[in-house]
Amino acid sequence: MEKLYSSLLFLIFSLFIFNSVAVEPPTGLTTDLLEHTDRVFLDGYPANFSIDERHSAVERYQLAAIRSEKPYFGWIMNDSIPNTLQTAYRILLASDAKLLTKNQGDMWDSGRTESDNSTAVQYAGKPLKPATLYYWKVQTWSNHGEESPFSEPKCFITAEKLDNQTACYPLQVSDEYPVKIDKIEGKTTFIDFGKAAFGRLRITLSSPKSDTVIVHLGEYAKDGRIDRKPSGTIRYSSYKLPIMAGRHTYTIKIRPDSRNTSSTANESGVKAILMPDYTGEVMPFRYCELEGYAGNISNFDVVRQSVHYPFNEQASHFFSSDTVLNQVWDMSKYSIKATSFAGIYVDGDRERIPYEADALINQLCHYSVDREFSIAQ
User: Fold this and answer.
1) H-only helix segments in 104-256
2) What span, in angstroms and rounded, lies between the C-alpha atoms of 334 and 150?
3) Are residues 195 and 286 in the same domain?
4) Structural domain for 66, as ranges
């Protein structure tokens, strides 16, 4: 009897816990593998206005446009109960956000669909129109018989032409500041950003008169100076910067490199991937030297504008008792972000051409550090 009594108490307790757990709505909604379809970028920087407000922008902005006539939808099912599986879903897609508040989908209402698919559910509604904003949401059912609330609505915009090509994000620009600044001579300053990245340089200088400063950018340093004759494919370049009297901010325009920015096809008939207008040309560099500038430089006077595909630093984490192994992980993870500067997997800065082996290695590594699949697709 005592054993039976204990079993009944455990069953009652389990039912109480089961019924008291609030079922959470799905999150992480994706359209054609893109999660941030509602984000707007201004020349590579995330903007502070929504995609609905894009018509009021006078600036040059970028969007992740969906190019498929029948895009695929995905989401993350959430439940705190162990061993929970999705057994069904319902998707609503509307041409007006107000319809979703009434649980109406004028473009598509999938109804309750028995399926465990939550990563690639193909659109099956009315034909989508080009250059049009759409809104959607999803709810799920679990193997415990639970019905989730609808997710928060997510919107996406279709491209000017629905050509069924792969959708992708615009490239993103991140401002990065030096980790070390040394005055090595009276009029020379050595600047270290800590890691190499593909980008441009923005710098603020003060001068009592008009003058000229030489800006050196490079990947490799030797004896506390940038190596100006590096070997192999290590990059180095210098630029003359005319400065005006007073305090002003300057942007260094990177010169195109004939080895990797040519629109002429190579012997295999493949062309280099060119950078978009809104980012401008980039080069890989870690170090900067200012020659001929007597003023002092603070950390916020020098900005490296690094270019990369959108990357979630918090999507993965690794730590062990081996410090060398930790460093290998950090370097490998950062390399995936840094080498995504072209928006497609290319062979670094050698030719900027996508090769099958390079792409395979990059995408397999990318899967391990970020919930991002569109660049691989």
Assistant:
1) none
2) 36
3) yes
4) 2-157
For residue range 313-335, what is the model confidence (pLDDT) as tens digits? Answer: 999 999 999 999 999 999 999 99
**Do 265 and 327 fall into the same domain?**
no
- Provide the 3-class DSSP secondary structure of residue 305: strand
Within-domain flag for 218 = yes
Domain boundary, last residue among 307, 340, 359? 307
Q: Measure the CA–CA gap between 247 and 343, rounded to whole angstroms.
A: 35
Alpha-carbon distances, residue 89 vs 24, 84, 110 (angstroms): 14, 14, 8
Q: What is the number of domains present in the chain? A: 3
Listed in sequence order, the residues at least 6 apart from 374 whose beta carbon sits closer than 8 Å to its beta carbon are 32, 33, 34, 166, 167, 168, 169
State which amino acid sits at residue 282. Answer: V
DSSP state of 191: E
Q: What is the pTM of this model?
A: 0.85
Query: Is the backbone of residue 87 left (phi > 0), alpha (psi -120 to 50) or beta?
Result: alpha
The answer as to whether 376 is a domain residue is: no
Helix (H, G, I), strand (E, B) or coil at 280: coil
pLDDT tens per residue across span 139-153: 999 999 899 999 999
